[in-house]
Amino acid sequence: MKEDVINLEKAALSGDIPAILELADMYRYGDGVKEDKEKAVELYRQGAGLNDPYSYWCLADMYYYGEGVDKSIDNAIQLFQTAAELGQAEAWTALGAYFVEDSPGAPDYEKAIYYYKKAADLNEPHAIHNIGVCLSNGEGLPKSDEMAFQQFLNAANLGHTEAKFKVGWCFLHGIGMNQDKMQAINWLESAALDGHEEAQETLKKL
User: Fold this and answer.
1) Measuring CA to CA, which residue among 151, 145, 144, 114 is closest to residue 129?
2) How far apart are CA 19 and CA 104, in angstroms?
3) Which residues contact 182 (CB under 8 A, 6 or more apart)?
4) What share of the chain in percent tops pLDDT 90?
């Protein structure tokens, strides 16, 4: 493993983006090396300097949560924006989530949905799921159980665990579509296999 790390270090120094990212992730999570979040930040900055969208995305995330750097929401938002404009779909979702969860004052669902739709156009499952939540709750969009269910189904088909649970729940209770217990069980089992605890508990009661 030590030799592998040395080889990655050499490749990273030469500007090899896959090596930079692999090494950065290793230091961020302590995978095969001693965890060193400051080193991870340094490597993500190197990747960002090479205009790599994933590097911008990870660097933004570290600023957002204060990992290896002083927490700075302003820096995080700027970096998420850059990552998004370079094609990192999850960054659009992160921007949308910011306006729901962390923006000063009341949530700004209009801005959140704008960013969620940007990500959804790139088939980003978290954004699609979040649009479903907005439709289900009537937050920023007219309330519609039918349209919410379709968004949850779209996200579930992309592998989103929480969306799988919600599709199963909708089938179980006939929310936004006709009740169908077999379909409910299928989706709940899929979510349960992903480790979704509420899906596991729901299945025990059926």
Assistant:
1) 151
2) 38
3) none
4) 91
Pick the closest to residue 44 from 88, 7, 3, 2 (CA basis).
88
Q: Report CA-CA distances (Å) from 197 to 24, 158, 175.
A: 31, 20, 21
Query: 10 Å Cβ neighbour count for 71?
Result: 12
Classified as helix, coil or strand, 194 is coil
Domains of the chain: 1-86 (1.25.40.10)
For residue 1, name the pLDDT band (cuts at 50, 70, 90).
low
Distance CA 176, CA 80 (A): 34
pTM for this predicted structure = 0.90
Quick one: pLDDT band at residue 2, thresholds 50, 70, 90? confident
- Through-space distance between the first and last CA atoms of the chain, rounded to whole angstroms: 48
Backbone angles phi, psi at 173, to 5 degrees: -110, 0
Secondary structure of residue 132 in the 3-state scheme: helix
